[in-house]
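Regression test attached.
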Amino acid sequence: MHKAQKEKLRDIFIGMRRCFKCGKRASLYLFQHRAAFCREHYLEWYLKRLDETIKEFGMFSREDRVLVAVSGGKDSLSLWDALKKLGYKADGFYIDLGIGEYSEKSRRLCEEFAKARGLKLHILHLGLEIATIPQIKSIEKRPACSYCGQLKRYYMNKLAKDKGYTVIATGHNLDDESATLFSNIINWNMEYLERQSPVLKGGEGFVRKVKPLFKFTEKENALYAFLSGIDFVEEECPFSEGANSIEYKKILSQLEERSPGTKLRFYMDFLRKCRPLLGAKEIDLRACQACGEPTIAELCSVCKLRQRLNSRILSS
Amino acid sequence: MHKAQKEKLRDIFIGMRRCFKCGKRASLYLFQHRAAFCREHYLEWYLKRLDETIKEFGMFSREDRVLVAVSGGKDSLSLWDALKKLGYKADGFYIDLGIGEYSEKSRRLCEEFAKARGLKLHILHLGLEIATIPQIKSIEKRPACSYCGQLKRYYMNKLAKDKGYTVIATGHNLDDESATLFSNIINWNMEYLERQSPVLKGGEGFVRKVKPLFKFTEKENALYAFLSGIDFVEEECPFSEGANSIEYKKILSQLEERSPGTKLRFYMDFLRKCRPLLGAKEIDLRACQACGEPTIAELCSVCKLRQRLNSRILSS
């Protein structure tokens, strides 16, 4: 583990407390839940809470074939590991974005994780399918996170359908989800607010998408990974620009520090009290004329991007 | 002016710019509006914007008899001054809370303001009506702001009805309103969100209540007061505790600094996009058995407080 990561974790390791479950010396203390745990009972608590969340939101059952989108980071690898321990059918899917050493290291960690546990991992090389993120970055003016997210969603959905998976699970955590909610509220993005949910139903060419870790903080997932001996990539993507989302995460952490539990309450009460009032607009989808994937226009956004890339190559 | 107040204002006084209207050397620059003004044209801009807001939200007309709730601070005295300059019928109402020197100074400034302009000011001494805030504080466990706000709303409404005013106007500014909205969202207080509006309709024993300054920041009101030669009390109430609301104001100011205009957009887009979805529950009101004011219970909260005060005096 890197030094920064260790320091981040140290403040929740409180050696003087006793495990809530067995009374042995505790390894960690969760302010949000006012609970101390030893290693063994933290992992037990994490798995139980994850399974309850999956059931509470009807995300999937043990009959479903789950495709876990893995990036090599603590969240998605913890998710995959935990789903397997809970007895779910879960394979991994890694999209190699072609971002130099960062992508190579991430891919290697995913491959090693899968190999050590005898799990099936699909790998897609974005550079072979369309272009690497650095190549796209050289012609697109939008922030990289915008088309990168779009491409990941596109290929996750496509591969899941092609291979017969019934659900796609991503590693979004409470810090991600509460910061996205905060951003959508500060700017009152009503369309995004309507879609803000840990479960996006499938249908009309889309495979169901779920975020089983949305109740766990980044720290809780890092602890799970650390205590389970999972080796994960700690570097942030070098192209991640989201200055605003970092600012929003900082603000929510300030509020959380003053009043532990704020992030979870803010997100859960949104789902419970506000989201039902928003309703969801029906979107008129059709098949993309080029690739057949669902879209609102004649060509889907990925095929349009492919056209822009091709015309750029032809003209140069 | 105090030194702190002057320093607070100095950062928006930018001497090198030219007035947006007349081209003369500007006295100030408003980041939020990207506009520089000389003294004369700032006052003109402020009055025009205030009058437009009053019309846009149908707050009142020149036929209405407006009761302005004044505290002696920059917001409420600026509001009263501006309403008179715009030709509205506006009298003042000061509630003396009996908080030692703070209340004495505030009352004196309101009286001097009214006298200098030949305006009518009603004064109510809370100590003569029920008890002073320090007296209530000695028996109530709630934060002082809670019963103080309740009492002010009660006596404002009562006096307005008794004296035939058709509207009550308060000096709430954009910083107040956006922080209240923020607090109600972080905690998803749906009942408060439904009532969050610059206009609360009258009826059923209530006089209409409006917040004509809700589009102006604290600084903009302080500038209006300063440039109009209004002497106002700069101290905060010594009993104000609102640690959370101060935290929320700080957070919104951080966001405003990164992206000027955030507070106003956050508040206006809530009114435009979100509030219409909330609906407002019908509340079953009846007349208080003791005082006749509207309430949801047999006794209104002020009469209940009076009972608690009386039983305390009898038992001591």
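Expected vs. actual: identical. The mean pLDDT of chain B is 91.
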